Amino acid sequence: MAGTPAHSADPGSGGQRKGSGLPLPRFASLRSDEVNVRTGPGPRYPIDWVFKRRNMPVEIVAEYENWRKIRDWQGASGWVHQSLLTGKRGFLIPAKPASLHKTPAPSAEVVAKLEPEVMGEIRSCAGDWCRVRVSGITGWLERTDIWGVYKSEPIN
């Protein structure tokens, strides 16, 4: 039909076909201890690898029906079924140790040192700081020290 925009059915093109309608990219977390990552959006595609870290943050970069193309903190990407993801926000310490502060200030008391690849839950973010929970400890991390939240994204 003339004048009607075509919707790409090619999952690699970034076009959406009956996706969630939520903004892309966005962060989510793995729902399970074992998540199959496939080479394409569907069970007919081979499993490329398996994530073994429940609650690990991932970035959703594309959608195709009930499938989400995700990217991890190291840049690896592949397709997972939406049922294996949750909107619960997590974070990961990517490269260098980070200080967990009692209050959102660089001069505040440090309540824990978090090593690379430590994961936790994001409670809220405003400005340069995020309130997080790690292994039962709640505190504040500088936004630039974590992977799992965008530079100026508010989280309430």
Integer average pLDDT: 90
Uncertain stretches: 1-16
The first-level CATH class of the largest domain is given as Mainly Beta
What is the terminal-to-terminal distance? 44 Å
Report the CATH architecture of the largest domain.
Roll
Question: Using DSSP, what is the number of strands?
Answer: 13
> How do the helices and strands follow one another from N- to C-terminus?
EEEEEEEEEEEEE
Question: How is the CATH topology of the largest domain named?
Answer: SH3 type barrels
Overall description:
Strand 9 (about 100) and strand 10 (about 110-115) form a beta hairpin. The chain is about 0% helix and about 40% strand. The chain folds into two domains: about 15-90, SH3 Domains (SH3 type barrels); about 90-145, SH3 type barrels, CATH 2.30.30. It has strands at about 25-30, 35-40, 45-50, 55-65, 65-70, 75-80, 85, 90, 100, 110-115, 120-125, 130-135, 135-140. Strands 6-5-4-1-7 form a five-stranded antiparallel beta sheet, with no helix packed on it. With about 160 residues, the protein is mostly beta strands.
Provide a compact summary of the structure:
The chain is an all-beta fold and 156 residues long. The protein has strands spanning 26-30, 35-38, 47-51, 57-64, 67-71, 77-81, 85-86, 90-92, 98-101, 110-114, 119-126, 129-134, 137-142. Residues 1-16 have low confidence and may be disordered.
